[in-house]
């Protein structure tokens, strides 16, 4: 019996090519929320999981985040029959004497986050969302929204949420609008700017440049502001458009031909919010830098939304979002992810606010501009190297870390590489290697394999090599224990070996260690759904695993992942060759697939006064489009081995 009917969504038949298609997708996601909406309309409760903030704020989150799409739809001339639910909700949620009151804001309150969508909504769709309210409801509404102006906020992208609250209040002529508060917030937010289009998410000192620096918050907010505040703050608005032009030339490297963005950092349950920057460029009427055109930008956003519309695990049977990435997965989320959190994805409906005549909609969709993009490409501010060589889009990463406690932060910021196709994995526990799922990482144990540590915080992260068009790589230091120092070099692929990248580690250790170095985690099942077996065994001959001294590999419908030790003079602490193992990771550790296998090299290393050097080559070739499995010719690329740069070999003395 075919089970293909499980691998579809209610939205998969929508071609998502035109504005009307996107309108239909937006309304199809809004409709299921009616069954989860409170009688007064002010709260939406989709599920029963908890967050670090209170339940009223979580239900406000469910109410507010879909407004990003609803308001854009209305601002662009569209209509939605369920709009009245939100109009009623504005009245009920801000009435302090009512049963659905959202609660007064306090310092650093989650309610502040939700004010961003609310302020934006009344700024762009005043006639539909503000004007229908009674005088009493308007008074309650503006008093509640303006209540954040005298409250303390985190020194992060949150300040943008108060800017948008004030922007909305200014557009409806409210006396609760504070021009001084908005200017002070804007001036402080501008201190986050670090150059080349990038802004950090908070105070100086920690590099954390994930999607919050682009589509989730900062770049997106700057672009919306540059359109809505053009008449009152023209110089700042032009500066934001200039930043976006520069930033776009880096950000384009995080996408692939199929529309997938590279999963990196936190809050990935926001899903296609990842691509909202591209729609915001259009909303702000930014003059595009080459090689971007409106056809390219349109393709970048719509391909991403199309890809997400076809991911069955992203949606519950009733059409609401699940919590997770490609499938329901609380393991990879943060403690601020409520059932309503994923509706931040509605940021990407911003292009619905544009008329059909806008170049974004009028242009013919263009493919991803692979040939026009240099690859590999050094991205200096985020300390990434992006590559599209060999049909695999991924980044090498060193130097980022979260400035405050975030669940699974070592996995979200500390891995060596992040792939648009293979994603990354998060630990399911703290003991076995299967629980750790240490893909794109070097895991070390000092207690005989009882516990393991991976890279989280780095020091002295930097680029090395030639900036004048020559080869470059990343170098960083990390300290799993006070008496253990690891330096890691990450070298991108070359045209000669496009499917391989290189890692070199120098370990200085006063204790004996075990090591486990992982390649890409890959879908770990055969064609019949059973677990992958050794290649050549019973089952599908085109798929399977391979283990040998210094080598591990897995081939499945998702493509090929492999790892190989490179021969070096390893010093007195070597402890012998590393063993290859195709490790079956715990279920629900990988973002892209719930059942994965991880090619891994296992080593044992003595304490030593001399440096221990490990050199590793990592192979990755994802399947392409609808064609599942390893692409033809991968074996010829597998037998090649990449070279370690001469500058690194000189340090080793090899």
Automatic annotation (TrEMBL):
Q: What is this protein called?
A: Uncharacterized protein
